[in-house]
Amino acid sequence: MIPWNITYIRPDTLEEAWQSYQEAKHKGQEVYYLNGGTELITFARQNKLHPEVFIDLSRIPELRRMETESGTHVFGAAITLNEIIQTHSFPLLARAAKIADHTVRNKLSLGGNIVGRLPYRETLLPFLVADGIVGIFGADGLRQQPLAEVYAKRLLLETGEILVDLRVPKSLVTRPWAYARKTRFGQAVDYPLVTLVLLDAGEQAPRFRCGVSGAFASPLRSGLVEQALNRLEGFLAPSSKGQLSIEESFIQQVVDLFGVPLVRDQRASSEYRRLLLEQALAESLVELITFPRQEASP
């Protein structure tokens, strides 16, 4: 229960949402946009936030789109993670969306996961490795920008701007991919210590792409890491059982190239996170090369 009154606004258009936000800010009120609201409401109940105005974006049509348009797949920011999983139009994203439990995923939105306060933002990783495009609504209306231009540890939105949608090229959504998620004690619904995604972009450079969350303070894609991954062929060798393996020294060198301190907290040491990251990278590279998948796991 939130022990104070909150003004709730549910606009029908982007323009109405923007205007409502500006009016609340002008009055000096603490105002937040809602998509699913799972995180904001939890923080308010824990007295970590003190919202005075909630603007619910879930009715706005542009944020509810999930369709193909001009060679891209469009994912509105207000669609829920379960809707992404059920439609399966981007298998890597569908796999990355399998966080929390089913009930929470019925409310947790794509946009809420990406712009939320928690540092994991796992559904951002597929868009990072697939050169995603973001739609943002602000003072000058709707604009589209490459994700790489507006992401630096977090999505760089100006005050009051709205994340409308994310887009990926149709040519990449069915490319082979691999995914690994490591948690404490193997609990599927726990926060990740390491989440890693790999994408084989084929003829589009770079071919092998990598995104990581959990191990670092924010989701990360590294050009230096991908340069190394695209020299992988020289470090492959059959194991004693005839299976493909990757030289341990190569994996260690790749992890060093991230060049960012690993997280150390009460959940795990940085050394343990590094071990999990090395395991996830080795396993996922072998999976990507030997068993390229076209669909996410059911």
CATH class of the largest domain: Alpha Beta
Kindly state the number of beta strands.
14
Largest sheet, described in full?
A: 5 strands, antiparallel
- Average pLDDT, to the nearest integer? 91
Sequence of secondary-structure elements: EHEHEEEHHHHHEEEEEEEHEEHH
**What's the CATH topology label of the largest domain?**
Enolase-like, domain 1
The level of helicity is 25-40%
Describe what is shown at a glance.
With 298 residues, the chain is α+β, with helices and mostly antiparallel strands.
Name the descriptors.
Enolase-like, domain 1; globular; alpha+beta; 298 residues; 30% helix; four-stranded antiparallel β-sheet; Uridine Diphospho-n-acetylenolpyruvylglucosamine Reductase, domain 3; five-stranded antiparallel β-sheet; Uridine Diphospho-n-acetylenolpyruvylglucosamine Reductase, domain 2; 10 helices
Report what the structure shows.
With 298 residues, the chain is of the alpha+beta class. The chain has three domains: 7-56, Uridine Diphospho-n-acetylenolpyruvylglucosamine Reductase, domain 2 (2-Layer Sandwich), CATH 3.30.43; 61-169, Uridine Diphospho-n-acetylenolpyruvylglucosamine Reductase, domain 3, CATH 3.30.465.10; 177-290, CO dehydrogenase flavoprotein, C-terminal domain (Enolase-like, domain 1), CATH 3.30.390.50. The chain contains ten helices and 14 strands. It has a five-stranded antiparallel beta sheet. Helix 9 (248-257) crosses helix 10. It is globular, with a radius of gyration of 20 Å. The chain starts with 6 loop residues before the first strand and ends in an 8-residue tail after the last helix.
